[in-house]
Specification:
259 residues; alpha+beta; Alpha-Beta Plaits; two-stranded antiparallel ribbon; 6 helices; 7 strands; 28% helix; 14% strand; globular
Length: 259
């Protein structure tokens, strides 16, 4: 299946041997073999400490409004290349999707709650575990683990995104019709849209070290943006839930997480 984004099939190199900032302190936890094959725990080398692949991934993912200091939306966002989704059983997926023209549609708690509710419904419908997430002002990072042999990431993304978009646009029509102009596409067939066209970014993860890297990268997004000093201070992420299950906005499926 073809979608838009950047191909990211290659394993991300973890920062374990070069930057302790990204390494979780939790001890190991067993990953049930009845759900999938056990994630590899083989150490990954940093090959001279350059972490070339990791930094390329970071740059691609960080190509968001933080590169636009003025805070204005990008009226001409860069062309998104095609990417291929690998719906491989036993592999986790780190997903990134962005608001239309990089506009900050996710600054209100009301809209953020739309995302939480949509994630909760979608994981029940499409049978996937949620391991980590962060809701930023204009984009979302999500780490999921499909629990069935056959699944389709594109359908999962569509389910999550369409529910949020529908609620947000219905709210604007009822309470702030003037705000719809920020969602205007200029096309008669689809006059308004909440999300950037395409599937965004999708990276598969097999190794336990890669999953650790992804989770810590996701949780540190608000810190890198200067929104908070500590990752646990950002309400709209899974950081608090990892530290103290039951305290975050969305319950995580930590029984399957490869600690």
């Amino acid at each position: 299946m073809r979608a838009t984004g950047v191909p990211q099939r290659q394993e991300v190199r973890p920062l374990e041997h070069c930057n302790k900032r990204y390494i979780p302190t939790d001890g190991p936890r067993h990953l049930p073999r009845t759900r999938t094959r056990k994630l590899s725990r083989e150490p990954a080398a940093c090959e001279g400490g350059t972490l070339t692949v990791a930094f390329v991934i970071l740059w691609l993912t960080e190509f968001q409004p933080q590169d636009n200091p003025s805070g204005a939306s990008m009226t001409n966002p860069p062309h998104r290349k095609t990417r291929e989704t690998f719906n491989t059983p036993g592999e986790a997926h780190e997903l990134t999707f962005t608001c239309f023209k990089y506009q900050k549609f996710l600054t209100k708690d009301r809209t953020r709650q739309y995302v939480i509710d949509s994630l909760n419904r979608s994981r029940k419908k499409y049978a996937f575990d949620i391991w980590a997430y962060v809701i930023m002002p204009e984009h979302i990072h999500l780490l999921i683990f499909p629990t069935e042999e056959e699944y389709d990431v594109s359908k999962i993304l569509k389910s999550v995104k369409s529910s949020v978009a529908k609620k947000a646009m219905n709210y604007l029509r009822s309470h702030n019709p003037e705000g719809l102009k920020y969602l205007a596409t200029g096309y008669a067939t689809q006059p308004y849209t909440f999300w950037m066209e395409g599937g965004g970014y999708d990276r598969n993860a097999i190794k336990k070290e890669t999953v650790d890297f992804m989770v810590n990268y996701i949780h540190n997004n608000p810190v890198r943006r200067g929104l908070v000093e500590q990752a646990e201070d950002w309400r709209w992420s899974s950081m608090q839930e990892h530290l103290n299950p039951g305290t975050g906005p969305l319950r995580l499926d930590l029984d399957s997480y490869p600690y």
